Amino acid sequence: MSSQQNLQGGKAFGALKEQQEETLDALNKEFLDDPKYQTDEDLPAKLEAFKKKYMEFDLNAEGEIDLMALKRMLEKLGAAKTHLELKKMILEATGGLGETIGYRDFLRLMLGKRSAILKLILMYEDKAKEKEEKLAGPPAKRAIADLP
User: Fold this and answer.
1) What's the pLDDT at 61?
2) With a threshold of 0.85, does the pTM exceed it?
């Protein structure tokens, strides 16, 4: 019996996530070593951020984002899309070759020069989080004269 089979519930999922992270780290290394991406500014930091984002939405830890995971991701980001729009995003990310987005396709999409829909949504999500963090705290005091 392997050590993987002895694990149950959360521990098994944690081990699966750890294994997935190792796989994604190996793919990140491929991109770090690829001369095509050497001119990208802050490439190691970008790859680490993309890995975290990918793992967040690869809910079953199978290494791919399927249509339903993409749907949940975009709904969570407040950018719900129709079934047809989701299929179009996947086709755009995979070059029409698959029905799920693998990590390699995800990285090519995020590091590529094209402004893909998914890439734009994820970039704006980060900007929205920064804005929310600035707005945290009690609202400013207002006088009656400030009302419209």
Assistant:
1) 66
2) no
